[in-house]
Design brief:
Elements: H1 20-30, H2 42-53, H3 58-67, H4 72-81, E1 94-99, H5 102-106, H6 109-119, E2 133-138, E3 149-152, E4 155-158, H7 162-173, E5 183-184, H8 204-208, H9 213-225, H10 273-293, H11 327-332, H12 361-369, H13 375-379, H14 383-392, H15 398-401, H16 404-423
Parallel strand pairs: 1-2, 4-5
Antiparallel strand pairs: 1-3, 3-4
Helix pairs in contact: 2-3, 3-4, 6-7, 10-12
Length: 428
């Protein structure tokens, strides 16, 4: 951003004061802000000073600073930061701001700048010989659809050609700026297509009904055709994508049968088997994690040492509660390699298992349900026990990847200091 400084002292006026009308307006504006926040009125007061004088003078800045009881440097910072404030004299009849941002430049803003150079001054921020006109190039002014455009004081003039801009400049130079209609300079309705309507060209259906009766007519047509689509589903295509499956909505309209057969709801499409398995898996995990987060009550006993169910197994098989092993292995009577870790009674001061990376409040609660309360227990897990817990939590190898055993050994041996020595960082 270019450095912006106040105009030379040679052109600065001796003093500044709001007119009587603007003084009343300024005090009314200041009262809009809550006590202690009146200095927030600095921008509107500077803008009113610019509208009164044509530009922001040094005496005006000092006057606003005294009026708001602000340090002078704070008001100077505002005035020199925002490019809406003119810090040097501008044309008394017109200061032309030509938009030079991409849409306007592609539509001929460069030609408009050449007109300003020819009709006003070769350089921006310079007043013409009569002191009535000046110009500058600015950034986007928000009328991109009607590019190219200019702004003179508070009015925009859009859809310009070099010839039309010359006419506008001549009119302001002659003191007839009020005869120029702001906005688009061609036969266009506000920002509607310049070529005319390309859609909704037949308005007879819209204009046929008085305002307010069109909704009734639409409802009648919908009732006659049997159409009853909620607005949130209107015009949405039907797809087989997993992301649009009704089963993953919350709450899901798809009901799962206890025997694992096909799930369906009234009017819902048939589910994708892969998606159905994923939904069932997520529901199972949610039901496990919900138990330890619920508050114990008289009707619901504490979950500190729950009695977990054991599945029926063949002799010699070590099966944990709600064992995640495949049913085929159970039916075949094959010995299972995974072994549930030995649980203990809840100690008076359990270890903070959340210090282990990968263990959050929910997982800690599930481990407590399994009787796992200390770092030493996790540090002693063999491969079969790690696999059992990993499968129970459906972690797919996460316990090995994050090396819970090594973390637990460090924490059990020397706490945070030992963990930091081993891993080079503090536990979370």
């Amino acid at each position: 951003m270019a450095v912006r400084r106040l105009a030379d002292e040679a052109v600065q006026p001796q003093g500044f004061a709001f007119t009587k009308e603007n003084e009343v307006w300024a005090h009314h504006t200041i009262r809009k802000y809550p006590p202690g926040r009146q200095q927030s009125a600095v921008i509107p007061l500077l803008m009113r000073a610019q509208e009164q004088e044509g530009w922001v003078t040094r005496p005006a800045i000092e006057y606003v600073a005294r009026m708001l009881d602000m340090p002078l440097i704070r008001v100077l910072e505002v005035a020199t930061f925002y490019t809406q404030f003119q810090l040097a004299p501008v044309g008394t009849r017109a200061h032309v701001q030509v938009c030079g941002t991409t849409p306007c430049m592609l539509r001929g803003a460069g030609d408009l700048i050449e007109v300003c150079k020819k009709k006003i001054h070769p350089e921006p921020f310079h007043i013409n010989e009569g002191g009535t006109l000046s110009w500058e190039e600015v950034e986007c002014q928000g009328a991109c659809v009607n590019a190219p455009m200019i702004m003179i004081f508070k009015d925009t003039y859009e859809d310009l050609t070099p010839e039309r801009l010359e006419e506008i400049i001549d009119a302001f130079e002659a003191g007839r700026g009020d005869t120029i209609k702001p906005g688009t300079q061609i036969d266009r309705l506000t920002s509607a297509p310049a070529s005319g309507l390309t859609s909704l060209t037949d308005e007879s259906v819209v204009l046929k009904f008085p305002q307010g009766e069109e909704k009734v007519a639409k409802r009648s047509r919908a009732a006659a055709t049997g159409a009853d689509v909620p607005p949130t589903r209107a015009a949405k295509p039907k797809t087989d994508a997993v992301e649009t499956d009704a089963a993953i909505r919350s709450p899901s309209p798809v009901k799962a049968r206890s025997n694992g057969e096909e799930r369906a709801s009234a009017g819902a499409p048939k589910e994708n088997p892969v998606q159905a398995d994923r939904v069932a898996e997520e529901a199972e995990f949610a039901s496990r994690t919900r138990r330890h987060s619920e508050k114990p009550s008289e009707e619901q006993p504490s979950l500190r040492a729950p009695e977990l169910k054991k599945q029926k197994a063949a002799p010699g098989m070590d099966v944990g509660p709600e064992s995640p092993e495949p049913a085929a292995a159970l039916q075949a009577g094959k010995p299972l390699k995974m072994t549930r870790p030995q649980g203990i009674e809840r100690p008076a001061q359990p270890d903070d298992l959340k210090m282990i990376s990968g263990v959050g409040p929910r997982i800690e609660g599930i481990l407590h349900e399994l009787g796992i309360y200390t770092y030493a227990q996790i540090a002693s897990w063999k491969k079969a026990e790690r696999e059992w817990v990993d499968s129970y939590l459906k972690f797919r190898g996460r316990i090995e990847r994050e090396d819970w055993v090594k973390q637990a050994k460090a924490l059990a041996k020397g706490g945070v200091a030992e963990y930091e020595r081993v891993f080079g960082k503090k536990p979370r």
